[in-house]
Description:
Chain A is α/β, with parallel strands linked by helices. Chain A contains 3 helices and 4 strands, in the order ββαβαβα. Chain A has helices at residues 42-50, 71-88, 106-124, and strands at residues 4-11, 27-34, 55-61, 96-101.
Amino acid sequence: MSKMKLCVLCCHYTNEAMPEELADIPAEIHIKRFPCSGRIEVVDILRAFEDDAEGVLVAGCERNSCHNRTGSLRAAKRVEAARELLKEIGFNPQVVQMAFVPRLDTGAFIEEVKKLFEIILKTKS
Amino acid sequence: MIIAERKPIERILQMIEPYQKIAVLGCRGCVAICSAGGDREVETLASALRLARKKQGKPLETIEETYVRQCDPEYLKPLAELKEKVEAVVSLACGVGVNLCADLYPDLKIYPGVDTTFYGANPALGEWEEKCRGCGDCIIDLTGGICPIARCAKNLLNGPCGGSQNGKCEINPDTPCVWQEVYDRLKARGELDRLTKIWPAKNWIPAGYGGPRRRVRPDLQINNKKA
């Protein structure tokens, strides 16, 4: 059976984790970094699914700690819009998750990726 | 500007069901400004359609393009080339754009990706409000710049109806009664006497009841016979 494919869209400040630090999650994990999570568009989320991702995590800075003030709040709105669109075409909206992660806290970031993995496992069962 | 809203994806999927390769064609005019049919909406819709079709096991190929204005033949020349590359086009322009594309290229299978809804203003980010109905016989000189045709559910021209309560409309407690607004505005401007004048019956022919409307400025025409 092929590995579950997950895609993480995050900003430079929420994640410094390297792929090997995510090695104990039994999934193929693709990380795409953006200058700010506020730069992530709905289409970036959709394209991840077009590229066969089964789940997408959008990770931004904790509220009130974004370098660009409201970047991660903007990202959360994009996630909501993507969920609405995905629902329209028959996807479970839970396959997209938003996480507000403490800046440069690799541990918290990895936890969020694990959470996404668990959610996707549930949606598949 | 003209305000539009994306059609449900299910509806668009029905339109393009027979095709394997389509173009999603945006417009940088009104629909881009009201975030319904500009570059960003084109790429989002195209991706959603591809994803939906992939899920159905019927892959879809898309070309994504956005023209300056789809209501102007000058900007539609590239469509002659584009239509040879695809089986159909989903246009995110307003109905005007879709009509014109279809008129200029009668053999083109073009489908609307948005519903054209109203003429509106953009009072805040992500919000649009109807302000004008395009009736062709503007009377807002009499009403303090507020249109009772566009902003009253009953298009009343002679004051509020019995459903006006505490300045709100009976159809929705969040909707102001336009006649309350007209009264307040004119009172503040010292022009309440405007409401005491008897207006002549409104001529509805310019609103489109005389058939499709057309405007001509002979001084701008190139091939007018009188020149």
